[in-house]
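Lesson 9: reading folded outputs for more than one chain in a single document. The general rule is that every protein is listed as its sequence immediately followed by its C-alpha cells, and records are never interleaved. Here is the first one.
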Amino acid sequence: MAQLRIALAQTNPVVGDLTANAERLLAWTRDAAERGAHLVVFTEMFLTGYPVEDLVLRTSFVDASIETLDEVARTLEREGLGELPVVVGYVDRAGLAPRVGQPKGASLDAAALLHRGEVVIRTAKHHLPNYGVFDEYRYFVRGDRLPVFRLHGVDVAIAVCEDLWQDGGPVAVVGQAGAGLLVVPNASPYEKEKDDVRLELCARRAREAGCALVYVNQVGGQDELVFDGDSIVVDGAGELVARAGQFTEELLVVDLDLPVSDAPIGAFPHDAGDGTTITVDRVVLSSEPVAPYEPAPGRIAERLDLHAEVYSALVLAVRDYVAKNGFRSVILGLSGGIDSALTATIASDAIGPSRVNVVLMPSRYSSEHSLADAEELVRRQGVNSQVVPIAEIVNAFEKEIDLSGLAAENLQARVRGMILMGLSNEHGHLVLTTGNKSELATGYSTLYGDSAGGFAPIKDVPKTMVWELSRWRNAHSEPQFLMSAERPIPENSISKEPSAELRPDQRDTDSLPPYEVLDRLLDDYVEKDMGSQELIAAGHDPALVTRVIRLVDLAEYKRRQYPPGPKITPKNFGRDRRLPITNRWRETTG
C-alpha cells in the first residue's frame, strides 16, 4: 500500500471570471502544498464557473477557457508549484466537424490534469444530464475516455460529476482498469436532504469500483442555483473517511492508504455497459511511493438539520447574488407579516443589517399591529428603515382612474412596487421580493406590485416552511450569519393570521385553503406532477383539487415574469418546471 494526501478544494468560482478563478486556483494550490498534499482536486468547470449556459456557444469564451487552462499550468510551474498535480474542470472543444443536432462548437464539459507546467491529461464528461435544471445536450458533446494517471505508485482515475450518477460509462470501467482511487469534480446543485443521497451514491460507486473515491463539490450561489459543497471521501468498502462542511468554502485534506499498481501503460478500450466503448488512457507521473509519514485523521463535518441547511442555502444565495452582481445593498417592503420578516432576516444574515433597507408603506387598511411588528423588527435587527404612507398616493391614482374590487386592491401593491423600484433606481439597491412558493403557485400575488424586484429569496419556500424557518432562526444562528441579533423576528409576525391587508379584515383564507392543506396538495401537483385523478386517489378533496389546479395553471404567466430565486426543492418555479403559458390542457376530476 502507498500513502497519498489529497486536498479537496471546495470552492466558490464566479461564472465568466476566468482570471479571478485562475488566481483562486493558484492560491488554493499553494495552501494545499503548504499542507503537504500530493494531489489537489478542484470542482467541475472551476475555471469558467458553472453553469455557463449559452456562453459556451461562443467561440471566444471556449478559446479563453482553453487558453486560461494552459496559462494556469505554466503559472503553477513558475510559482514553484509545478510538482503538485492539480485536477481542475474547464470548457474544452472536441474538434468535431459541425453537423446538424450537435451543439455549436462541439464543446466539452472537461477536466484536466496539470503537472510540471503542462496539461498532461484532458478528458470530458460522458453522461450529459438533460433533466431538471440541466440542459447539457444543448451545450456539450460527450467524452469517451477514462484517464488514469500513476501518482507515487497509485493509479488515479478521473470522472466528471454526472458520470458518477449514471450507470455505465467511465465509472463502470474504473474497476476493470484497476484504479486505486477515483476523483470526481462536481457542480451538484443543492436540494433539501440531498446530502444523504450523495453519500449513498459515493459509497455504492466505490464498492462497485473496488477503490477509494473522492467527490469534490462546488459551493456558492449562481442565479437560481445554490451549491452546498458537502465534499465526500469514502474508502473502497464505501465507508466514510472525510466530509467537508455545507455552504462554506473549505480545503479538506485527507490521507489515504491505497494500492500500488503495476498495470501496463497505454490506451485500452473497455465495454462501458451503456452501449459505448470507453478507452482507458494511462500515464505515469511518478512510480515510487512517498516515504511513510504519520497520517492526519480524516475530518467529518457535522451535518446540518433540515431547517439549518435550507436557511443556510437561502443566506448563501442572497449573499452571492448581491456580491457577484456588484450590488452594495438591498431594499424590500416590510409589512409586519411573516414573509417580509423572513426575507429581511435572510438579507441581514447574508450581507449584514447595515446594508439592508426596508420601507414601511402603510395603507388605509394596514392594521396598527402590522406597523408595530415591522417597527419591532427594525429595532431588533438594526436595518435601515423609512416610512412612506401610501394612502394619499393611492387616492391620487383613484381620482384619475376608476378602479374597483380586485383592481383597486392591486393598485396598493403596485404603488408599493413603484416606490421600491424608484428607491432602487435612486440609490442602487437590489429590490428583494417577498413572495413564497405557495403564493406563486396559486397566483396570490400582484403582477408589477409585490412581484416587482430583482431577486426572490423565498420564491421556492412553501408558506408552511416560511413559518418553520422563522421559528428555527429565532432559536438558532450559524457562525457565517452576519447578524448578531437574537430572536430577530417578532413573535407576533410568526403567530398572527396571514393577510395581504388590501381590504378591511382581509385574511389569506378568504382566497386560499389553510396553508397546511394547500401546501400538501401543491407538493403533489407541482413537485410530483400528479394529475387530478392521482391527487384525489392520494386523499385530496376533489373540489379543492379542481380549484387549486385551476389557480396554479392560470398563474403560469405571472410566474414567468417573477424574479429569479434560489432553488431548494426538487422542482422550483424556473429551470425545473417549464410549462407553456398558452395552454388549453386542463386536468379533469371525473
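And here is the second record, again sequence then C-alpha cells.
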Amino acid sequence: MTSPSGPSRRQVLVAAAAAATAPLIAAAPAQAAGAARSRTWDLTLLGTSDTHGNVYNWDYYRDAEYDDSKKNDIGVAKLATLINQIRRERRGKATLVLDAGDTIQGTPLATYYAKQEPITATGEKHPMARAMNVIDYDAVTLGNHEFNYGLPLLDLWIRQLGFPALAANAVNAKTGKPAFLPYVIKKVSLGFGAPTLRVGILGLTNPGVAIWDKGNVEGKLRFDDMVATAAKWVPVMRARGADVVLISAHGGDSGTSSYGPELPNENPVALIAQQVPGIDAILFGHAHNEVVERFVTNERTGAQVLLSEPSKWGQRLTRMDFTLTRERGRWAITKKAATMLNTNTVVEDPKVLAAVRAQHTKTVAYVNQVVAQSTVELSAAESRYKDTPILDFINHVQTEVVGAALAGTTYADLPVLSIAAPFSRTAVFPAGDVKIRDVAGLYVYDNTLEAVVLSGAEVRAYLEYSAKYFRTLAPGAPVDPEQISDPAVPDYNYDVFSGVDYDIDISRPVGQRITRLVLAGTDTPVADNAQFVVAVNNYRRSGGGNFPGIVKTQVYNAQQEIRQLLIDWAQAKGTIDPADFFQPNWRLVREGVPVF
C-alpha cells in the first residue's frame, strides 16, 4: 500500500522494471546509417490538470449544467471525448495521457465521497478513480489538494487507480525515502518498424502541502524543493534509459509563492526548465491558468523546454506534439509544439458518465436537501468591499462554536473575534428554502475551524496585511467595484473580522490603511496589549496566505469542518434571519468618507 512508509508493491515493481531496462539500453547496438536517419516519428502528449472532482459538466451549487460568461464547459467526461478522438486519429501512433494533479477535491461530488460516505469507510471506488480509469491515463501527479482528506483516503484512492500516481518530492519524514513513486519509464511503440522509445515521466507535487495540510502530514511527510528534486531524478531517469523526459508538475510558472520564504517555491516550473538539464517538456498545473505554449531556455544546455498548463476543472486539454529522429542508436527530438483544445466543442463521453452516474445522482440528491428557511435573499456579490449579512453568517457561527467550546476554560473571559473570506462572488441564500448546495456554494473549501489568541497589535497587523487586497484610490477618484481589488491578491486571501469595528482607508498606502480600530459597539481603541480569541480556518492558521501572527498554537481545534458547522447551525435554527447575526462593523473609506 502507498503510505508515508514507502511506495506500494505495485509501484516498486514498476520502478524496478524501469531500472532493469538500464543495461539493455546501454547494450543496444547502434543503427547503421540509412533509412532510420531519414525517417521521423512522432509522439503526442495529452495533458489535464486541476480537474478538482469535476466529472459531469454540472454546477452542483446551481443544480444546473455548468455555464460561465466565456461559455466554458467542465468535467473529465468532456476531456475523455477529446482524448478518445485524438487516440482514434492517431491509431497506431504513440499517445500518452498525463494529469498534473488536484483531482479528488473541489466539488460536492468529491466531498461526498470523502466526508458523507468516505471511501475509507465504505470501500467504494472514488468517482475520480472510476472516471480516470475509463480514460486510462498513463500517470497522474499528486496535487496539494490530494492531501486534504488525510493519507488513508489518499492511499486508497491511489490503489484504486489503474495507473501510477507520482510525487517525487514527497518524502517519508522518518526514513528520508520517497513516500510515493517518483517516476515511471514507459516503453512506447512509435509504430511499425520503429525501435522502442522509453519515455521517463517525473511527478512533482507542491511544497505548500506542508502548510496547507499540516494537520495531515506533519511528522509523516516532508516536501522537498521541486527544482532540487528534478535535478536529483532527471539524471537517474536518463541513466536508466529514458530517451525522452517529461515532467508532470503541480506548481505554476510564476516563480512566486503565496506563503513566506520558509518553504520551497510554490510555482517554480519555469525555474525547473531553466536550471535542470535533460528535460524535454513540462505539463504543469496549480495556478489554474491557460498557458498554451511556453518555451524556456535551459541555461546549461541551451535546449528549449516546452511548457503548457491546461486551465482548470476540465475546461482545456493540452496537446504536445514531438517529432523524433533516430541517429546512431539514439533518439532525438527535432521539433516540439503545444496547442490547447476547448472541451466546449464536444459532448460528454457516455462511458465516463455511466461509470459515475450513480454517485453523481446521489450527490445531487444530497446537496438539494433543504436545511432552513431564509427570511430574505442574502447575496455574496458585494462581500469583498461591503459588510454583508451572508459573510457575517459565517463569522457568527464560528464565533458561537468557539465561544461555547471555551466556556469554563482560562480563555472564557476573552472576547471572541472571527475571520472569514469572500470565497465566492456568486453565492446566494434565496428567500425561502436554503439547501445544502447554497451553503456549500458560500463555503466552497473543506476547511476546519480552529482558534488562537491574538493581541490587539497582532489584530491590527493582520488587518493591515489583509487590506493590501485593495487598489489605492485617491479621494474623489471614481470607484469601480469590479476593479477595486489588486488582481495579484485572490479573493480568498482577503479576510474580514467580526468582533471589532474598523475602517480601511483605501486612499492610504498599504500598511497604513486601518485608520479606526475600536472595540465592538464602542469608541474605545483596541489596545496593543489587548487579548482576543480569534476563530479562523485551518488553512489560514497553518500559514496559508502568509498572514502575520496567526501561525501559533491553537486554543481550539476540534477538527470540525466549517461548511458542516454552517449546515448544522441552519438546521438547528430552522430559520436564517440576518437580525440574528448581522453586525455591520467595517467599511471602506477615503479620508473618513465611506466609499459605498
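What the second record shows: The longest strand covers residues 330-342.
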